[in-house]
Amino acid sequence: MPIMLQQCFELLTSKLLLLLRASLALEHIPMSWTHVGVGPLSQAKSLRPISPMSFILKTLKKLLDRHIRDGVLVERPLHQNQSAYRTGMSTETALFHVINRPEIP
Length: 105
What we know:
This protein is mainly α.
């Protein structure tokens, strides 16, 4: 549980790091990390459900994102048509470019 990591950070950090590295090395995400409970948002106006992920899976996601942004993308920048990891680019902008692309005769 997250509170355990907060209260015992020094003790658990090395174990968590080993666990995350093993998951990446084995290319395997344990089933217990993927169980998500879906519930309504606290605001009555919103129809969007929330689905809190395992804190371990969130941690892995953040570490991978940081590795991609601060490492891989610095060494090998993205192609100009790539939308992911680019400020101002989204699924909508990618679709806009595809729809408005000049047709080839």
